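TA notes, week 10

Several of you asked for a full example with nothing omitted. So below is the full record: structure tokens for the whole chain, then the designed sequence directly under it. When grading your own attempts, check the secondary structure regions first.
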């Protein structure tokens, strides 16, 4: 089974080609708005019904090629399948999907894109990571105009290596003070990350309060700087964790943090940090890198993992002496709370239930109750 990933290719169009791309994108999105009006009036997300209602009209009115008209109706249908109660609109520079009828690769550094001015062949560049995956290009691509530059976000299909079955795991505890702590005792501190994000937040708040034209311009210029920073931190950290698991022949046990924002309560000063932290992004990076490396990943319920003693199994709120420190009131075992949680996550993964697939019978009960 193939694994789908997305690589980013930076286009290098000439001024005339860039103008053709811009007009094509604007015309396509205008057609989407016209189709959207019809879909909203008919309260439908049926592609067949919209095809009969709009196909010839939008081809004549907007001068779209046949395949582009079909794609416009597909984009609108996808939007109304999510929500039929809202009139959806599309910005002139909204990203648009290109398939193999609208886009083709001529060489490893050239791409042909169908525009309102016919096909345009233009060069593109990408980093070493994406260069290694260009030979696996297959499927659709999104044409994106961002910060004055053109990009293709291209789907690639990579073969799945066999997942190594194991009964030994590295437990990983995710947090704010320490981004990640593993069961081997390795701490990946979040202190530097928190200070950078706090600086971004302070500057953003100050510029927003000024409200001047130059302040708004600087806000626009910096709007994705923090996102780019986190997209550098999380891949590096996930690569390190997966490489450790692969090198030692172990799997990875992660906290299942789905819905964590609805379950926990934090003080007012911590809310922005708690709800904007990219836990899901980090876990996604870990999972796909592990899959590419053949490393098994299991999810563990995080509840009580930082309150349970890994030595005697005693679970009590009083075991957490502070945010950072753990001291078992039963046996006296002490340590860093995040490290204790990572050990319990590992233990829960090792002792996870074994279920007979044919009869659905639980054959082994976990020794650690984490729920």
């Amino acid at each position: 089974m193939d694994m789908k990933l997305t690589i980013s290719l930076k286009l290098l169009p000439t001024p005339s080609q860039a103008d053709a791309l811009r007009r094509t994108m604007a015309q396509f999105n205008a057609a989407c708005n016209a189709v959207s009006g019809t879909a909203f009036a008919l309260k439908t997300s049926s592609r067949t019904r919209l095809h009969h209602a709009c196909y010839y009209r939008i081809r004549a009115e907007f001068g779209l090629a046949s395949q582009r008209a079909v794609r416009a109706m597909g984009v609108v249908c996808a939007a109304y399948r999510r929500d039929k109660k809202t009139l959806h609109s599309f910005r002139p520079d909204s990203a648009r999907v290109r398939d193999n009828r609208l886009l083709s690769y001529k060489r490893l550094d050239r791409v042909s894109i169908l525009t309102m001015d016919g096909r345009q062949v233009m060069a593109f560049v990408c980093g070493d990571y994406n260069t290694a995956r260009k030979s696996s290009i297959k499927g659709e691509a999104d044409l994106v105009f961002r910060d004055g530059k053109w990009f293709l976000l291209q789907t690639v299909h990579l073969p799945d290596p066999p997942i190594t079955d194991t009964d030994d795991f590295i437990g990983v505890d995710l947090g704010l003070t320490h981004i990640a702590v593993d069961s081997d005792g390795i701490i990946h501190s979040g202190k530097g990350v928190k200070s950078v994000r706090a600086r971004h937040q302070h500057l953003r708040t100050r510029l927003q309060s000024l409200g001047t034209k130059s302040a708004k311009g600087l806000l626009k210029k910096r709007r994705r700087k923090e996102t780019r920073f986190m997209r550098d931190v999380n891949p590096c950290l996930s690569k390190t964790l997966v490489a450790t698991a692969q090198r030692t022949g172990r799997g990875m046990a992660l906290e299942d943090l789905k819905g964590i924002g609805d379950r926990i309560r934090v003080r007012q000063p911590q809310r922005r940090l708690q709800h904007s932290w990219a836990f899901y992004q980090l876990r996604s990076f870990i999972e796909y890198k592990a899959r590419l490396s053949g490393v098994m990943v299991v999810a563990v319920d995080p509840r009580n993992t930082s309150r349970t003693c890994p030595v005697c199994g005693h679970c009590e709120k009083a075991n957490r002496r502070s945010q950072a420190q753990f001291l078992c009131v039963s046996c006296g075992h002490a340590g860093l709370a995040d490290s204790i949680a990572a050990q319990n996550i590992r233990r829960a993964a090792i002792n996870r239930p074994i279920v007979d697939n044919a009869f659905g019978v639980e054959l082994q009960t976990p020794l650690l109750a984490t729920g």
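Residues 15-42 form the longest helix (28 residues). Use that as a sanity check on your answer.
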